[in-house]
Design a protein that fits this description.
Distance between the termini: 23 Å
Shape: globular
Structural class: mainly beta
Helix content: under 10%
CATH class: Mainly Beta
Strand content: over 45%
Number of helices: 0
Number of domains: 1
Mean pLDDT: 90
């Protein structure tokens, strides 16, 4: 049975011309060889969304969002993968090209996770994003 740890998460997203930051409390646990991080995101315009990050062997990252916004994105270094994003307005498909994924210390309940990716709709580049998550044990 996996051991769950409550953690504090500081998330920073940089898309070149826009930088956002927010904090959340979440759960970190390891099941077999996969590290899971779950937290709730609240946005005044989008409502609540539960985020689950799965960090798998081989630097594979999957992000599943469920709530007012739903998405399923896979990040594989140096590969282009298909992603799905759904809102009340409909479902869209995107391609994600991942430049880099790095992480450290997550098995101890603290550390960091970062990834850099480009988001495409067809062949049109929508943006380049760098996400950084700093994870510390909750008090």
């Amino acid at each position: 049975m996996p051991t769950k740890r409550w953690v504090n998460i500081r998330i920073e997203s940089d898309s070149g011309d826009e930088r956002t930051q927010f904090s959340a409390k979440g759960e970190l646990y390891i099941k077999k060889d996969t590290t899971y991080l779950r937290y709730e995101e609240t946005d005044s315009s989008d409502g609540k969304t539960m985020n689950t990050l799965k960090l798998m062997p081989g630097e594979l990252l999957r992000i599943i969002r469920r709530g007012e916004i739903e998405s399923d994105l896979n990040f594989v270094p140096n590969e282009r993968t298909l992603g799905i994003y759904s809102t009340g307005y409909g479902r869209m498909e995107f391609d994600v090209y991942t430049h880099k994924i790095s992480f450290s210390g997550l098995q101890q309940g603290m550390g960091n996770l970062s990834w850099h990716y480009d988001l495409f709709e067809g062949e049109n580049l929508l943006g380049s994003f760098k996400i950084t998550m700093d994870i510390t044990p909750a008090d």
